[in-house]
Amino acid sequence: MVSGKTINLAVIGDPIAHSMSPQMHNAAIEAAGIDYIYTACHVKEGHLQEAVDGFAALGFRGFNVTIPYKQTILPLLDALDDAAKMIGAVNTVVIKDGRKKGYNTDAAGFLSPLKAQGMSVKGKRAVVFGAGGAARAVLYGLISAGAQCLTVGARNEEKAKALASSFQEMREIAAHEWHKESFAAAIREADLIVNTTPLGMHPGEDETVPIVWDDVRREAIIYDIIYTPAVTRFLREAKEHGCKTINGEAMLVGQGAEAFHLWTGTEPNRQVMTDALRKALQSKQSAMH
Ligand code: NAP
Prior knowledge:
single chain, about 290 residues, alpha/beta, Rossmann fold, 2 domains, 6-stranded mixed sheet, 6-stranded parallel sheet, about 40% helix, globular, binds NADP nicotinamide-adenine-dinucleotide phosphate
């Protein structure tokens, strides 16, 4: 029951009505039996600074940040964790004694289903399709978990190279246009192949990244960070090829679980969060039909 003592959490974005974070977090709050509440706040263009200051003034414990504010919020915060600094984006803010610290939990979220299934990426060769914001978080996660050999492929080679060189102080990353033989060579050797592009996401279910499945080792893990649909064409073809697969649902739950822990100091029940996310997705889908 919400009372005068209830601690506030939120997610901000523009738009925000589509967010499933309130369902996911409130289910975890209820399961943990802690006195928190999580709401969605629509912060319109030009009001980010007021919103951030307002959360601190109102005594919120913290908030999640989504599109379009993941980068623009950086200069408004008092401190950043290493992941947020390196990824250049914040998805979680913790407020303590009025000080606002930004975190990025996407990399830890990306790693969590691999960890949960006992799959270590230490010393492994990984290939990433796509060179956008999610690819940056995935690459940071792979580097921090000790992946040895990293390759990024994108339709735009310049963007792939720019992304790779932004990590040069941490690790050398190879970058190629994704139809090139040099990229195919990396695919042939890969232990883990990740799609971070929106190709295959609803309503474009027929689409996929360019990959020759005969080139892919059957022991390779194929990971698509898309979560709608649950099984993309990329994952369906990977399964047909005999590979183990992971979809984006656990990454989404994982980034939320990491944020939950930062705010509350409590480890949430990830199954409860997953069930709430699936339910929210289902009701969203039936509302559209
Ligand atoms: P982004 O910054 O826009 O980057 C998207 C990347 O995909 C870019 O490299 C882009 O290439 C490429 N791309 C986009 N459309 C393409 C097309 N039609 N053909 C070829 N390449 C294309 O987006 P993002 O934030 O990285 O998000 C990417 C995906 O990850 C989305 O589907 C998002 O839902 C998903 N995601 C999932 C989670 C999770 O928790 N599971 C978290 C974050 C993101 P150009 O630069 O050339 O356009």
